[in-house]
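can u pls check wat happens w/ FE2/S2 (inorganic) cluster
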Amino acid sequence: MTAIAINLNGRRFEADVSPRTQLAELLRDKALLTGTHLGCEHGICGACTVLVDGAPARACITYAVACDGADVVTVEGLDDDPLAAELRAAFREQHALQCGFCTPGMLITARDIVARLPGADSDRIRLELAGNLCRCTGYLGVIQAVKQVVDARGEVAPLLPAERLGPVGARPCAQAVAPPTPIATTPETVAKVAPVPVASAPTDGPAPQHALARSLAVTAPVDAVWAQFADVVALSRCLPGAEFGAPDAQGVLHGRLHVKFGPVRAAFEASARQTTEPAERRGRLVGQGRDRLTGTRVTAEIAYALHAADADTRVDIEVRYGLSGRLAQFARGALAERFADRLTADFAYNLERLLAGAPPDATAPAADGLWARLLKWLRLSNT
Amino acid sequence: MKPAPFEYVRAASLDEAAALLRRGDLDARLIAGGQSLGPMLNLRLAQPGLLVDITGVPELLAAERTADGVYLGACVTHANVEDGRVPDATGGILARVAGGIAYRAVRNRGTLGGSLAHGDPAGDWPCVLPTLGAVLQIDDGRSTRELPAGALLRAAFEPALAPGELIAGMRLPTLSPAARWGYYKHCRKPGELAEAMAAVLWDPERDILRVTLGALDDAPCALDDASALFGRSGSRLSDRFDSDAVDALLQSRGIDDPIAQQMHRVVLRRAVERACA
Ligand SMILES: Cc1cc2nc3c(=O)[nH]c(=O)nc-3n(C[C@H](O)[C@H](O)[C@H](O)COP(=O)(O)OP(=O)(O)OC[C@H]3O[C@@H](n4cnc5c(N)ncnc54)[C@H](O)[C@@H]3O)c2cc1C
Ligand code: FES
Ligand code: FES
């Protein structure tokens, strides 16, 4: 817990907050100012917009600890504000209120428009209000209300708050803080929890909705590559972040797949079953995984077929996968494809190393420019 | 949703921030405005053990005119630039771009450094700053190195920063009076991340013809010498624009959906037309 003090609606307000406390949560739950509403909680809807150091800011993606010493004004703090009084009257006259959920955020944004953009026309007002969503879709009244106040005020000097540079709310650090001691919620700690048993076939996971096909060229004879594909445990190590043990009595592989993508880190507890058709040099891996950290589930069917290409081998891979949970929200379709491309490139690189008798390399392709080269090469061989 | 628990430290200096980032016992992450990290924390997509707030580090708030351009600290916000609170060497380009990012409430906290380091392929600064020739100052608390903005973004969401390194700021060169600029982005709704974007800088006097394509699902495609896209004959740049060459470029970047191709092609053509207008 951290002790903070803010100047809230003109009064000093002190609180002991945990670092993850959103500014909105502090306002609603600790200061009992429930005029600030929470809708999306990721900066889109604008319902939580408050004034921080005199400028609008999202109270859902601003953390209370980051506002220590700041000046915060909520809709309740605008009772005696002359500009807000004009806006309230205009909102009434123009029927800019329906259920009222979006209204506190609308008023804060409207006040900013009037103060910062004297003479703004309807188009500009509309643009500035794009960050405030109304579930009742009553935008016209709001735009007219803001326009009415802007017009009534005429040409006045714009009112730009906060002279200092940097994010509103932030203050220069006075003195060095003692470094924290680790708490028991790092991914490493969570990852040490015993793996949860997962069913061997993806019957209860998300249905595969995405498919992608890739070909990779391996400079080794097809028989050697096929022999390597039979050793699925060694094969799995070619995928950076994968840790699989020997198959259990039912032939099911269990293990973990660590994924890192920007600030996202996931560790999928995964299980998979392999079936092969040696005569056709074809096989299939069906599996599923679950990441406890992000509550994401994935199911995947990976079909592979090996073809002799002169003295070398072409490996055709078809992946069908389904994703549900939080990571699925983040994974815009094509981003997931690029990520799969990268995994495939890393896999191809390590497969070649494995066939040449070298150990798989968890970092090399991503660490230097190599993976970009690999990616290019992969696309060239993409048929 | 409430983020998973994390520790929080407000760093007083670059050294302190870098040292905290290097700690092996905690999964530490920087936070500047929190306008990209915040949504990921709230969705619990990101669950760092420690957040190092760098918005109180004085060096990161610097903004000054230099002999050949301007220097902007990493924690300068989009709104600071939009309002002209920092010096400009680009004839107003920076302020216009800044004003088109997200919404004012987001711009009041989102920073230049955070936008670059987050590396969203659809971000405005990752497309614009490489085109303007920005050079980043990367600091690890012990030494500083320079990196062209285009080289930072080698893959979506994966900036080329070593553990313990952070973006301290950037140098932007002064554009010559003859320089022409075109920028266009396509969003379904104002303030939303773009579906396609392109930036063009043409300075015949200094022999610069740079193009960056953004919102490609991959890192932005920054061409330091874009003359290959302008292979046709003609006196105006827009007449020389070769859409076949653009198609080939898009294909080489894995954009093979015809609708996506059309979108990127049109956006680039409009950016070129604006540069010629
Ligand atoms: C609703 C909404 C709409 C948006 N629309 C747009 C848009 O249209 N265009 C656009 O470009 N952006 C958009 N954004 C993103 C916004 O511009 C962010 O401000 C910006 O991308 C991140 O800056 P930040 O300071 O908030 O970074 P933070 O969220 O604090 O950090 C982002 C990442 O960068 C790292 N980081 C931060 N600073 C540094 C540094 N100095 N050195 C190294 N690493 C660092 C952090 O560890 C983190 O991983 C939108 C955001 C929201 C919420
Ligand atoms: S709740 Fe903050 S923007 Fe939606
Ligand atoms: S009035 Fe109901 S959400 Fe806007």
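The radius of gyration of chain B is 19 Å.
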